[in-house]
């Protein structure tokens, strides 16, 4: 009697492979400057922490990536001949999340990555007279700088040729490149500070003009032109409070002014003030007001009658 055939074992689910990064290390006589020619075959890869600075010169097609790291998420646009700065001892994940048009295949990224010792970076910063805080490079992309492109192309040609003028000449060329990157970052940071200050002033004005409306964090971040993560961090640094704490404080200040202006004459003034300050519930408004001032709105209104108007 024939036995029924045994059922085939279930297939294990296939886990998509993260494409490997191909690296070719070019020999260099310098212990401070090395070159790695890198091909990234697919749309996602991890950048592992290393004890040296990496400056990746894009010698292939342009591409855009989502970046996840210690400071949250951001988007980098890496045009051809742009430079990506990767700080030492920091890990990141890059992923090209933008859907590609139908029929268009992913083109591998091709990078010439300069590996530069921390000692050389510190010597550059000291030579430029930069304070320690300005010598800490961040993960970002530099584009549209013809001087940087020329320096990177010169250093690449020198390393590919085997450093014909010796290790010291190669290190001097790398030091000039690093110095330019440090100064560019310092200049961009100064511009960013001014832009962020202007953005926070705009957001603060918007909050004051719309206290009677719901104020969503995403909308405020959009006004500032920042991601929600970056907006919350910058907001607290600049204004000394979280967005929620700041909005509540501004609503309480408006409530005190309105209660003082209305005095005891207007019947139902507490309800009107609650609505004018963005509270849909009078009980919620009263609880927040008492937490802020130690008195209910009616108690505060009576005690403030005849006094000077409250400060903004």
Short description:
By secondary structure, the chain is of the alpha+beta class. Helices cover 44% and strands 18% of the residues.
Distance between the termini: 95 Å
Please tell me the total number of domains: 2
Please outline the major beta sheet: 6 strands, antiparallel
Strand content: 15-25%
What pattern of helices and strands is seen along the backbone?
A: EEEEEEEEEHEHHHHHHHH
Radius of gyration: 29 Å
What is the CATH architecture annotation of the largest domain? Sandwich
Shape: elongated
The averaged pLDDT comes out at: 84
Low-confidence stretches: none
Kindly identify the CATH topology of the largest domain.
Jelly Rolls
CATH superfamily of the largest domain: Jelly Rolls
Assign the structural class, choosing from mainly alpha, mainly beta, alpha/beta, alpha+beta, or little secondary structure.
alpha+beta
Strand order across the largest sheet: 1-2-9-4-7-10
Helical proportion?
Answer: 40-55%
Question: Can you characterise this structure?
Answer:
The chain has 312 residues and is α+β, with helices and mostly antiparallel strands. The chain has two domains: 21-193, Jelly Rolls (Sandwich); 210-312, Arc Repressor Mutant, subunit A. It contains nine helices and ten strands. The strands form two sheets. The chain has a six-stranded antiparallel β-sheet with strand order 1-2-9-4-7-10. The chain has a four-stranded antiparallel β-sheet with strand order 3-8-5-6, with no helix packed on it. A hairpin with a 2-residue loop joins strand 5 and strand 6. It is elongated. 23% of the residues are buried. The model has no long low-confidence stretch (mean pLDDT 84).
